[in-house]
Amino acid sequence: MAIKDYLRQKFFPHMWCPGCGHGIVLNSMLRAVEELGFSKNEIVMVSGIGCSSRISGYVDFHSLHTLHGRALAFATGVKMSQPELNVIVPMGDGDALAIGGNHFIHAARRNIAMTAVVMNNRIYGMTGGQYSPLSGYGAIATTAPYTNIDHDFDIVELSKAAGATYVARTTTYHAQQMTKILKEAILHDGFSVVEVLTQCPTYFGRKNKLGSAADMMEYYKKNTTPIGSKAKAENPDLLERGVFVRKDLPEYCSEYDKVIETAMKGRS
Amino acid sequence: MKTVLEGSHAVSEAVRMARIQVMSAYPITPQTHIVEALSEYVAEGRMDARFICVESEHSAMAAVIGAASGGVRTFTATSSHGLALMHELLHWSSAARLPIVMAEVNRALGPGWNIWMDQTDSLAQRDTGWIQLYVEDAQEALDTTLQGFHLAESINLPVMVVLDAFFLSHTYEPVDLPEQADVDRFLPALKPRIRLDTRTPFAMSQMAPPGVYMEMRRDIQSAMERAPDHFARTEVAFEKVFGRRYGAVEAVACEDAEVILVMTGTAASTCRQVVEDLRSEGEKIGMLKLKMFRPFPVNAIRKLLGDARKVAVVDRNFSFGASGIFAQEIRAALCNHPNHPPVFGYIAGLGGRDITPDTLKEIYRMTRDTDHPQAESVWVGLTTEKESR
């Protein structure tokens, strides 16, 4: 199937700003689905609220555009009712980790099979650039004009600690790596977290004087490195990207079926 | 000083001059401009306040409740799903008798996602014990926010100042911006009746068994029953300093009117024009603008509408399975009045659809030409009449 066949072209042009990284995430995600050979009907995309969440409108899968922060809770309901479907949950950093933080850690803890994609642009873009839990200490935002004093989460560490069985990080500069990671994450039988650093030139970039969208992507190129690289050993400030966790633990829906089987003691 | 302000910023200015000490909020369109401006004022040192940017509206109200329990003046703002998420804490804040003021920008609830004007979000919170005041324009938004603190603190109940999404929150109007000294005269520093104090420790919000709970609820209602008088006093004090007053309700050309339209929010401004236009054509139309919704000003409404010929309520909201919410309340207020007039219910302008002068003229004519209201609400301006699924 051609990539474009996965798009709801009637909803274009999309609403993202020029230079926004979210389109690259959409592109890499569609390539991953295409390379895996899934039909449209095998995928459910569940999103919350924010710029990132609009992605569910542009894909011709089953899609649910839900409440701010609650995408994973809705997705859990979808997966429990139709475990054979592949559930992809794109979220923004505020959506996933501020208002939806509780759902995030508990979905990870349960190890329910779905792919949480955290599109981390470090800001609330849709509402005009307020700081998020990923803006980080020292960042500028419309609600922090003299720098932010909140410290940020490390999404990878948080996911690991919460029990996610597949955890990866990449950036919009590394679009091919993103496709590769997403493929693996979607196939993984458990809760997968993929953090994608994605540029918001309109708010985060402008407020923090990070230059154009291309400059911000250049930053991702220069300031990230593959996990365990020599460069990391020489420069510990570099941010690692790649797959941090890949482990097999019992998956929630399968375990649930086993409980039913045990309780029924062979009766139907 | 006359200046031109966005509706949202009229609220921000009032909050700044009210010298609030703690505010907390979470971004949501179309409320965001209000707190965005305030966060700048705080950062620039124009306000001596703390701004807490939290991880959800639920936390925002919790933070404000905590601050108000410490005896300081507090504020928050939200909209739509943000308000729905606060629901639990709305009950909590009123029952804790904390004088919190909130700006609530009326916005539709999803799905389908809609960020535009609709009153169902605030009206769905009618049973939470919050005083609700609906405003028509930027000046009234500013003035009512100041009055809100005065009223809340006089009676220890929280106050919600409700304004229309976009039609008011994002439009610019000339506004008379008060002098700080005048605001201080009208609204002196908060003297909290409830305040956590290490010298006289006490426990807040503890278990209330059946032996006391009912009396506590009755106390809230007693405060609500006194609220219209307190609001009148607030208005007298406000008028003394600023020369303006609004009233819990306002009657426009109602004396000899054969049809009185009941309006709220910015649509009341549209209706003023319609009243003028139709009066010049000899039509006997009047308008009742409802500012106060909680407590519902039953006595004022009985006085102004009890002997009317016909009443037409324009609801920009809906209670599914029933009718427009203002219409329900008006009917309930009038049902024990000896001459209670027929009350016609119209639904218009949901989800940001315009209520134009023509919409209101159509509502007027339908009411004038119909003897008895039908049981169901009349939905005005639907684009399809097809059978619903």
Provide a descriptive summary of the structure in words.
The complex is a heterodimer of chains A (268) and B (389). Chain A has helices at residues 22-36, 55-58, 71-81, 93-99, 101-110, 155-162, 175-187, 201-207, 213-223, 230-234, 252-264; strands at 43-47, 62-65, 86-92, 114-120, 123-124, 130-131, 166-171, 191-197, 224-226, 239-246. Chain A has 268 residues and is α/β, with parallel strands linked by helices. Chain A has one domain: Rossmann fold, CATH 3.40.50.970. In chain A, strands 2-1-3-4-8-7-10-9 form an eight-stranded mixed sheet, with helices on both faces. Chain A has a two-stranded antiparallel sheet with strand order 5-6. In chain A, helix 10 links the parallel strand 9 and strand 10. The longest helix of chain A has 15 residues, at 22-36. The radius of gyration of chain A is 18 Å and the shape is globular. The N and C termini of chain A lie far apart (40 Å). By secondary structure, chain B is an alpha/beta fold. Chain B has helices at residues 7-17, 32-43, 57-69, 80-95, 120-123, 138-155, 180-186, 210-242, 267-280, 298-305, 325-334, 357-368, and strands at residues 2-6, 22-25, 50-53, 74-79, 101-106, 131-134, 159-164, 172-176, 249-252, 259-263, 285-290, 292-294, 310-315, 343-347, 378-379. Chain B folds into two domains: 2-242, 3-Layer(aba) Sandwich (Rossmann fold), CATH 3.40.50; 249-379, 3-Layer(aba) Sandwich (Rossmann fold), CATH 3.40.50. Chain B is built from twelve helices and 15 strands. In chain B, the strands form three sheets. In chain B, strands 3-2-4-5-7-6-12 form a seven-stranded mixed sheet, with helices on both faces. A six-stranded mixed sheet of chain B has the order 9-11-10-13-14-15, sandwiched between helices. The mean pLDDT of chain B is 96. The longest helix of chain B is centred in the middle third of the chain and has 33 residues, at 210-242. Chain B is globular and about 70 Å long. The A-B interface holds A 49, 65, 67-69, 94, 97-99, 101, 124, 126-128, 130-131, 133, 142-146, 150 and B 26-29, 32-33, 35-36, 39-40, 43-44, 51, 53, 55-57, 81, 110-111, 113.
